[in-house]
């Protein structure tokens, strides 16, 4: 065979192969682009949920912990300062709100159980505010109040 005939005969095949490969690469790129947009959307969803979870958890710690409800409850019993009652009321509202907000997120069974424990603990403390008030009014000692609550 003549070299021109070989190039002509195989040139079409090579061109067809090159076109097929190019189309395949373009299709693969399109698939990867589509999948990467799904990954981006999943990451945005995860980031939003994670940020909301962290914010809710921070609010829960702030409303319950140091400077919050339980801290003020302890100070009320120890110092018998009635102005702490208002602070405890506000802290308790913020605490229940933070628990409810956190509960609205997608949670694992362990997180649900922990929130139930926190909520029941807050309810017990809430019930003991009146017990502490009566005990303080009756002039009971701190140790006696501690035993009651």
Quick structural gist:
The protein is an all-alpha fold and 149 residues long. Helix content is 87%, strand content 0%.
What does this structure look like?
The structure is a single chain. Helix 2 (69-79) runs antiparallel to helix 3, helix 3 (83-103) packs antiparallel against helix 4 (109-137) and helix 4 (109-137) packs across helix 5 (142-148). The chain has helices at residues 3-64, 69-79, 83-103, 109-137, 142-148. The model has no long low-confidence stretch (mean pLDDT 83). The chain starts with a helix and ends with a helix. It is rod-shaped. By secondary structure, it is mainly α.
Helices, strands, pairings?
Elements: H1 3-64, H2 69-79, H3 83-103, H4 109-137, H5 142-148
Helix pairs in contact: 1-3, 2-3, 3-4, 4-5
């Amino acid at each position: 065979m003549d070299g021109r005939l070989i190039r002509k005969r195989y040139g079409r095949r090579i061109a067809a192969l090159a076109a097929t490969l190019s189309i395949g690469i373009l299709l693969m790129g399109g698939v990867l682009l589509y999948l990467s947009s799904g990954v981006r959307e999943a990451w945005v969803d995860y980031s939003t949920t994670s940020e909301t979870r962290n914010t809710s958890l921070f609010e829960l710690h702030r409303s319950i912990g140091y400077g919050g409800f339980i801290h003020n409850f302890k100070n009320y019993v120890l110092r018998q300062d009635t102005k702490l009652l208002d602070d405890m009321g506000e802290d308790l509202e913020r605490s229940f709100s933070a628990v409810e907000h956190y509960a609205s997120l997608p949670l694992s069974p362990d997180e649900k159980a922990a929130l139930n424990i926190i909520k029941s603990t807050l309810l017990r403390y809430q019930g003991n505010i009146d017990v502490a008030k009566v005990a303080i009014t009756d002039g009971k000692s701190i140790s006696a109040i501690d035993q009651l609550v």
